[in-house]
Every structure is written in structure tokens, then in C-alpha cells.
From TrEMBL:
Domain of life: Bacteria
Annotated organism of origin: Epilithonimonas hominis
Protein name per its UniProtKB record: Plasmid stabilization system protein ParE
Stored InterPro entries: RelE/ParE_toxin_dom_sf
Length: 97
């Protein structure tokens, strides 16, 4: 299954990684990326069904439950939409609704 990232997803992941660089160890940041890969692999193999955020958008917690990943799934593609640090204002997600 193909995995694609929106521009918003790329920008939000970079923003979170830069923020966490000063607060987390390098191992914790690597674990975040490892958990991201695991979630996407689970979705691509239909191993896990993640919580729905809205009708077509799913969410998953990664990074010691500090970061939410938002994505959609269709028959041949996972589209990563956005990443949100759980300490950020959830109003940033209004564009997903």
C-alpha cells in the first residue's frame, strides 16, 4: 500500500520534531519515528483499526502518547494528513472537519 504525506503533514511533523529536539532525547525522537512506521505498517496490513476522528479520518497516538497522527485510508493508499502535539490547541484541526 502506498503512503503519501500532505504538505501539512510534512510541515507539522518537522515542527513537532524541532520542538521535541530540545525536550526529548535522541532515542525518544527515534522512537517517535519508529512508532510512526509501525502504525503505518499496521494500517497497510489491516492489522489494527484505529480510532475515528471523523467519518473518513482516523487518528493514532505515537511518541509516548504525546503526538496524534491523522490519516485516511483507501484501497491502495494511506494519506497522512497532519500531526498534532497533544499539548497544542486542537483548534488547529478545524481544517480536517
Amino acid at each position: 500500500m502506498r503512503i503519501r504525506y500532505t504538505k501539512e503533514a510534512e510541515e507539522s511533523l518537522i515542527e513537532i520534531a524541532e520542538f521535541l529536539y530540545y525536550r526529548w532525547t535522541e532515542k525518544e525522537i527515534q522512537d517517535l519515528y519508529s512508532e510512526l512506521e509501525t502504525v503505518l505498517e499496521n494500517v497497510s496490513q489491516s492489522l489494527v483499526i484505529y480510532e475515528k476522528f471523523s467519518e473518513n479520518i482516523f487518528q493514532a497516538l505515537i511518541g509516548n502518547r504525546n503526538v496524534k497522527l491523522y490519516f485516511t485510508v483507501d484501497s491502495d493508499e494511506i494519506l497522512v494528513l497532519f500531526f498534532l502535539n497533544c499539548r497544542q490547541n486542537p483548534d488547529r484541526l478545524d481544517f480536517l472537519k
